[in-house]
Amino acid sequence: MARGPVSVQLYSVRDRLADDLEGTLERLAALGFTNVEPYGVFVAGSDRYAAALAATGLSAPSAHAGVLELSDPAPAFEAAAALGVRTVIDPAHRTDDWESVDGIARIAERINRAAERAREYDLVFGYHNHWWELEARPTGVPALEQLAARLTDDVVLEVDTYWVEVGGESAPDLLGRLGERVKLLHVKDGDRSRDTKRQLPAGEGVLDVPAILDAAPSAMRVLEFDDYDGDTIDGLAASLAYVNHLEAGK
């Protein structure tokens, strides 16, 4: 089976981007990345991002934008389409609705409505988890799984495998249960704590990264740090080398 392509979430290098957008993208390209995943700031600066992507030869097949909190998602979808993005992911929806079955149904309605709007721009819409969607377990089943069962067929999931394990679930097991709904993975490592400074390059922490990648072989691998106590570019280089090494053996 073909392995999923590799990308990098630009939130990892947010401080560098603020100082030097094109130069930072050039450094990522020099590491061997061909894909990037922009985060929310691209919406207000889509022209700059489009120019920088073109200058560095990078593509942005997916992007994060906080659509579910917007009264009108059109600007986010328009900006994404201008960058050549194909999939827009809502990065986080923090609400007490995760704690009840009825609340999860309301979240699903919001996501399904956003997906319907995204289709107007030839975009796919999806959701990215943190830990709270796994810790919440109305009826004993993680809220994220209950959500997945209520989404329309064209909605995708970007599973953040680190936060899944912080939330108390085995990432490989969850990926197996979610199946083809999972089109993207956030790949990072660490000690399963919420202290983001303790995140580590893939392969240097306690997560079973090989099993995670094997559980969703065709999903895009998006490397990320929420934070990192070191040089982030070096950390991303280590993650990329590790993932490439694993995938080369498949």
Structure, described:
- This protein is α/β, with parallel strands linked by helices and 250 residues long.
- The radius of gyration is 17 Å and the shape is globular.
- It has a seven-stranded parallel beta sheet.
- The protein starts with 5 loop residues before the first strand and ends with a helix.
- The mean pLDDT is 97.
- The protein has helices at 14-19, 21-31, 46-56, 74-82, 101-119, 132-135, 143-148, 161-166, 171-178, 209-215, 232-248; strands spanning 6-8, 62-64, 87-90, 124-128, 156-160, 182-187, 220-223.
- The chain has one domain (6-248): Divalent-metal-dependent TIM barrel enzymes (TIM Barrel), CATH 3.20.20.
- It contains eleven helices and seven strands.
Secondary structure topology:
Layout: E1 6-8, H1 14-19, H2 21-31, H3 46-56, E2 62-64, H4 74-82, E3 87-90, H5 101-119, E4 124-128, H6 132-135, H7 143-148, E5 156-160, H8 161-166, H9 171-178, E6 182-187, H10 209-215, E7 220-223, H11 232-248
Parallel strand pairs: 1-7, 2-3, 3-4, 4-5, 5-6, 6-7
For the record, what CATH class applies?
A: Alpha Beta
User: Which spans of ≥5 residues are poorly predicted at pLDDT below 50?
Assistant: none
Q: In angstroms, what is the radius of gyration?
A: 17 Å
Total individual domains: 1
The helix content is 40-55%
**Secondary-structure element series:** EHHHEHEHEHHEHHEHEH
Strand content: 5-15%
SS elements, strand count: 7
**What is the count of helical runs?**
11
By CATH, the architecture is named Alpha-Beta Barrel
| Helix/strand/pairing category | alpha/beta
